[in-house]
DNA sequence: TTGAAAGCGCTAACAC
DNA sequence: GTGTTAGCGCTTTCAA
């Protein structure tokens, strides 16, 4: 590995001069700059980031932690973060916590050891002590898709999302409405979606029967399949079902169809997230959509503002984007 | 930020002692270890990775570069890499090149600056100079899903995949067979898939007509939609079409269906990759599957073997996994 | 414009 | 067992 000193030596100049030349400092003669750059190129010089960051005691790296890559609605968020970071000279390191608080902590701890300049995270929220600790060191931390009073957050109005679903179903004449949820204890978005639906039903003189609240324990199509079994066993079946996310809805639809029943004839289904490929499903899934790229963009912009100290240190800011209903064939 | 020296000072010991205690070295008295650990905990000490790596002149980080997150077949690969890395004490940084050679180079260069211990990459192969350069510094580099004579590779037998498709279609009585490909100039897997199909057809006395080779320029469902337009315009239509990946196939099916034609009645469709959710499509897509998690696992294991120097430095090894046909409803 | 020198936080000989 | 010392490769005052 060739270092700055190697170059300096060969050129008979000081390492600091090489450093300046490479950094494009104005305080170096044009001639020196040229010589340095040429030799660096020729010697195949690669700066050592660890050394640089250590010397500067800071990095231009942003940590980005999402729940899981397989939930494809995170992809546009990631890409927005990457895009905005890039235009501002930041680099991003993305990881998935796989919805495990232990893994989340491990990742965050490592990012901390790497002295990242900021953190964008969709936390499980099962524990936030590690996030509070980071924040206390002065590092900008911003939550995406989840909210917490002590942190800057960019999320969507999940309650409103639930309302949209309820109103849509009511408008289409459904009165017997059920739900499928994961039931994860710290899944606040899910709770608000449910609440929005529930309260809107109530406002319309309807109640969400307990046995129509199907709790399946996970967020994958498998959970939806399980819900289908539950629904089939119900003597008194809801005519429409809201799933707290698209993956559940997809599994539900398949379970239903496998039993010979029809969507939406026997049961209307509506999801949440508007992930890719929904148009291509056996029955295109109606769902609640929201601007995912925008979320990542705002998150990264907020981080940059904080890093540039254009923001009041002690204020937390919550962005809440509006969801909208995307009607397809399933409901 | 509290440092090792802060702890040393408060305890009245040398920084090196603290370092040893924290590293769990045996050469420290139990009592000292306890005191150090307690104080470190209390002072909320976080090791500085940059400093550590610089001092050690090495890292325990592996770089992993894939083409795109949105092509979900990469997810199991990533997870395998993460899993195996973790059990061996390595950490991994994953990025996507978005199929851009410029971005790929940028990412690789940065990983190089970070002195990663190894690199796992699905390269675009449009240019490999940067990869050769890395390899020459002695860093283990292994390709996943693509092959190159100068690099260790873990991939699948794409030619065989094409054969499987041809044989399957022939067995089911199809004789008029077309293909949809991206046509990317350095997409070797696609070329081999096509070749496997083509030569098998030839062996059976059939030829792949030029006008039945639909080149769409990308790998997304949009490309498939485009192919549908091309197919519809054809006066002489192939009765079965092989798409070089599932995303194309999904788009193709949708384009076909939107026109009122039926899959597989009017046109049989078969894809490649076996991405998630295929079971849930309007018409479940028949495709070529292969062990994705296994690929990531082998890649990481190979890296570890090289890092432990259990491998011959100057031998390149190519792993080729066997694909198999996953028949569903589309063909 | 350039050089010398100190230091970022940690590790790893080498002594004691 | 523990301390001393010398870096790792780079940046950044401070002088010249």
Q: How many domains is the backbone of chain A divided into?
A: 3
Q: Judging by the overall fold, what is the CATH architecture of the largest domain in chain A?
A: 3-Layer(aba) Sandwich
For this entry, what is the oligomeric state of its chains? homodimer
* CATH superfamily heading of the largest domain in chain A: Response regulator
Proportion of residues in helical segments of chain A? 40-55%
The neighbouring-strand order within the major sheet of chain A is 2-1-3-4-5-11
Can you offer a commentary on this structure?
Two copies of one chain form a homodimer. Chain A is an alpha/beta fold. The first copy, chain A, has three domains: 4-47, no CATH class; 61-156 and 292-321, 3-Layer(aba) Sandwich (Rossmann fold), CATH 3.40.50; 158-289, 3-Layer(aba) Sandwich (Rossmann fold). In chain A, 44% of the residues lie in helices and 15% in strands. Chain A is built from twelve helices and twelve strands. In chain A, strands 2-1-3-4-5-11 form a six-stranded parallel sheet, with helices on both faces. In chain A, β6 (177-181), α9 (188-203) and β7 (213-215) form a beta-alpha-beta unit. The mean pLDDT of chain A is 95. Chains A and B meet through α4, β2, α6 and α11 of A and α4, β2, α6 and α11 of B. The structure holds a DNA duplex (16 and 16 nucleotides).
């Amino acid at each position: 590995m060739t270092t700055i000193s190697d170059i300096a030596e060969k050129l008979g100049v000081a390492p600091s001069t090489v450093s300046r030349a490479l950094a494009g400092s104005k305080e170096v003669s044009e001639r020196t700059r040229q010589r340095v750059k040429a030799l660096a190129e020729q010697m195949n010089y690669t700066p050592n980031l660890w050394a640089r960051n250590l010397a500067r005691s800071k990095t231009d790296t942003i940590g980005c932690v999402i729940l899981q890559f397989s939930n494809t609605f995170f992809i546009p968020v990631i890409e927005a973060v990457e895009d905005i970071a890039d235009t501002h000279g930041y680099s991003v390191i993305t990881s998935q916590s796989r919805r495990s608080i232990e893994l989340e902590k491990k990742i965050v701890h490592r990012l901390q050891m790497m002295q990242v300049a900021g953190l964008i995270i969709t936390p499980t929220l099962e524990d936030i002590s590690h996030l509070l600790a980071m924040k206390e060191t002065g590092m900008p931390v911003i939550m995406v898709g989840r909210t917490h009073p002590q942190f800057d957050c960019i999320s969507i109005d999940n309650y409103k999302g639930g309302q949209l679903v309820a109103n849509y179903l009511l408008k289409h004449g459904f009165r017997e409405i059920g739900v499928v949820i994961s039931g994860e204890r710290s899944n606040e978005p899910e709770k608000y979606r449910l609440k929005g639906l529930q309260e809107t039903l109530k406002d319309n003189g309807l109640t969400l029967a307990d046995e129509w609240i199907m709790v399946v324990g996970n967020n994958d199509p498998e959970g939806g399949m399980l819900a289908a079994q539950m629904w089939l066993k119900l003597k008194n079946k809801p005519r429409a079902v809201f799933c707290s996310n698209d993956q559940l809805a997809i599994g539900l639809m398949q379970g239903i169809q496998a039993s010979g029943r029809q969507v939406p004839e026997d049961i209307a289904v509506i999801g949440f997230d508007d992930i890719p490929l929904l148009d291509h499903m056996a029955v295109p899934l109606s769902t609640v959509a929201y601007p995912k790229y925008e979320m990542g963009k705002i998150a990264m912009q907020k981080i940059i503002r904080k890093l540039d100290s254009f923001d009041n240190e002690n204020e937390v800011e919550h962005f809440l984007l509006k969801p909208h209903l995307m009607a397809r064939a399933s409901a």
